[in-house]
Amino acid sequence: MDRSKNSPESESARRPWLKNINAKIAALPMIITALGIFVGCSIWTIVHSFTNSRLLPKMDFVGLDQYERLWSTRRWLVSIENLAIYGICSLILSLLIGFTLATLLDRKIRFEGVFRSIFLYPFALSFIVTGLVWQWILNPEFGVQKIVRAMGFENFVFDPLYDPQLAIYGILIAGIWQGSGLIMVIMLAGLRGIDEDIWKATRVDGIPTWKTYIVVIIPMMRGVFVTALVLIASGIVKVYDLVVAQTSGGPGIATEVPAKYVYDKMFAAQNLAQGFAASTMMLVTVAIILVPWAYLEFKGKKRG
Question: Where are the transmembrane segments (predicted)?
Fold first, then answer.
């Protein structure tokens, strides 16, 4: 009688879900609790976004009225426009700066650990602290503008947080300063995972370094770039702290963002249903970001 057919290894091979079954059972309570809270609260929020809830939630359904009111509100439309500007610029610049810093550090330069710590340090700060610091730096009374004028350039003007057309870019500066270090570390980890033989082969073939990065290295780091994109995009959707610390949404509503709109409607205006409708739209946005990423990741692993 062949005992190998009844061995645990053959059983796991025939039933993959039995692999690491003890670890899966141990993690089951945490998974159920997390899913229950997330899914339950999400469903509760979506349901009440179709009601007329004000100070307290109530099951007074009004259909799509809250969504119609939301998309006809200028403040919400401005917040979407600001998020688009902030998001596109942050996505491009964070990836560009982070990857550039990673390639420089990957050259095995001296004091690499010191530079890596310096570039990553801003990420250790809270967004509130970062926002306050950059509010001071960009303040025309004692920030960059005052320093440059003290050097003799009397006509120099640099006060983006006080210009409605430029205020969102002042927030963008702070966001990139804080987030680029994390992207640098992720990219550096990806670069360190590239086999040294690949670099040697490209040198033998006489391929320039810049072309090696574009043609060979970046395609090999697809998974790293996808992960970085998801992290940046999720941070963009929920940006709130920087805005509150730097401008509180001003001047006027020039730097309004969806997360601040939700908070103000739910707690300041005591209009729960309108806040629920706005937060549901944010949830849809996050789902649009995460679902393609999850599909690509799991599809890639399945093919592998």
Answer: 21-47, 83-106, 118-137, 166-191, 212-237, 276-296
